Amino acid sequence: MPLSSLPPETLSLVLEFLADEDLTTLILAQRVCKSFQASIERILFQQPLGKEWNRTGPTGVCPLLLSKFKDLFEHEKEQRGSNEGWSTDLAFRRLPWAAGRSKGAEVKEVEMRDSPYLRPEASWRRLSVTFGAGPGVRSVDVVKVLTVYGGMSMRCTKLVIPSSTSSPEVSGDADASGEEGEVDEDEDEEDEDDGEKEKEKEQEQEKEKEGGGGEAEEQGGKGILTMGLLYDLLASGEGLMGSVTMGWQFLPGTRLSSYKNWEDLRARDRYPRRKNIMNLFVKQDDSAVLFVAGHRGCTKRAVRKRQDCSEEDVLWEPDVIGGIPIVMRPWQGSSSK
């Protein structure tokens, strides 16, 4: 019996083993037929949300994603040389679809305008960052450590991860038949009630944006960190420190233990070593830390004016793709003990 003739349930079991052994081959196998594509999509984009992690190994980043998106997970400025030419955009210019367009970091806007990889619906954006290497990341602590003359400072925020079950609202003014008719008083009252409910819903949504996720996050959240959300977090600049950013590192399976521990460390040493700062992070399987390092010198850097150039010569600048705003909330500690 050919493999394609197997029942969907049996085929999914076979493909699940392939997901753990060779994710690259599994992704390419979607081209075999529609049956394969449907089964593989369920494995890639649905299973990580509900699958329990039973392995004893440490949580990490999917090896395939780490090899293709290395600079998004760990990117640092080279210590030698001056700051001239350094930009956080360099991490995006080293991505596979950008690095092959032209030599070095000279990636042109016209070359990337119609790139299929930069579409909101691109399949790589839906992959969990820890697929096959750990449980889905449901909480991200963004820890920014800035070195200035006189010591170091730390700022901690938490990324609001949208719910994976959210769906666009459907609205309509006509009934199912599409016919217009007379409206009685009862229907007027229902319309007023619906209007009030819509206002209340809008107010709740605004509170969620301001407070950082609302009830979904208090219950642990239903969404997980995907490659698309990580990309947008960095591309938006919300996860970085602008021009003073010297690098970042994504640490899955960890969280910040306590801000007080940082204060104690800072009281003992004005310039704590990186190793001592890393000791502030403790293990937690479904969490991650985005550790960002920055440095501001005594003098301000000169602002370089952009030269006028033709459309063909404009360099590509990474931007948010997904259309969902990146929302951060103040770090208030972890709910886990």
From TrEMBL:
Segments of skewed composition (Basic and acidic residues):
196-212
Comp. bias (Acidic residues): 176-195
* Name recorded for this polypeptide: F-box domain-containing protein
PROSITE patterns in the cross-refs: FBOX
In residue numbers, the region (Disordered) covers 163-221
Q: Which residues form the F-box domain?
A: 1-56
